[in-house]
Amino acid sequence: MVLHWLIAAGVIANWLIRRTAKATESEEAARAIMSNHFSIGVTLWFLAIALLVVHFTGGKAPLASHLATWERWLARIVHTLFFILLLVMPFGAWSAMSQYGAPISVFGLFSVPPLPMEVNPEAAKAAFEQHGQAGVILLSLLVIHVLGTLKHTVLDKDGNLFRMLPFGDAKG
Ligand code: HEM
Ligand code: HEM
After folding, report:
1. What is the distance in A from the centroid of ligand 2 to the CA of 168?
2. pTM, rounded to two decimals
3. Could you give the dihedral angle defined by the CA atoms of residues 8, 11, 28 and 24, in that order, rounded to the nearest 10 degrees?
4. Could you say which ligand is closest to the alpha carbon of residue 87?
């Protein structure tokens, strides 16, 4: 549960950081802002692995028993795509950074060294463009995920949100 909310906060923070960096005129300032995105991005990879371990060792978020079959499928597909993107996006960004020949500093605590790849700024640029597109897909999934939660919690009043909170009534 804590992992889920840390991941949600990290994803939203990374989106906002990217937006802020894009809107910043000074290139140096934008770079400093983006270093937080890099650090959070690497952390998200470890958090996603941890959530996956919890998921497969019995801590999986139980879907309410009364869900329609299509709702159950949609929720499963969205969760699976979340896991895939959270694992692939930092890895793709790491290989892109490697093609710039640059390490990734994580909160100034340690650095992730570049992979042994040929330096190729053109390929790195293209890889980061794909990373940005993956980010847009992730945010679209977030909209579906939150709308689903709200539909169940507010319209159906089935306590869905409370499945992910330590308080309240998670019915069914
Ligand atoms: C980008 C941010 C988010 C990501 C990546 C994410 C990811 C996930 C994943 C992977 C699960 C399944 C966990 C498992 O099976 O072990 C899940 C479940 C759940 N999430 Fe999120 N989540 C995010 C944001 C949110 C937000 C903002 C809300 C509330 C408004 C929310 C509410 C829930 C609920 C209620 C469940 C329980 C299962 C369900 O009904 O779908 N999530 N989330
Ligand atoms: C799961 C982890 C990550 C998430 C959820 C994430 C999310 C995002 C999002 C939403 C965007 C913006 C898309 C847009 O506005 O069009 C983006 C862009 C970007 N991210 Fe990440 N990111 C992650 C990890 C990383 C890492 C580890 C790095 C670098 C080491 C990185 C570097 C970048 C760069 C350079 C861009 C700009 C791409 C471009 O528009 O050309 N990200 N990311």
Report:
1. 35
2. 0.93
3. -90
4. 2
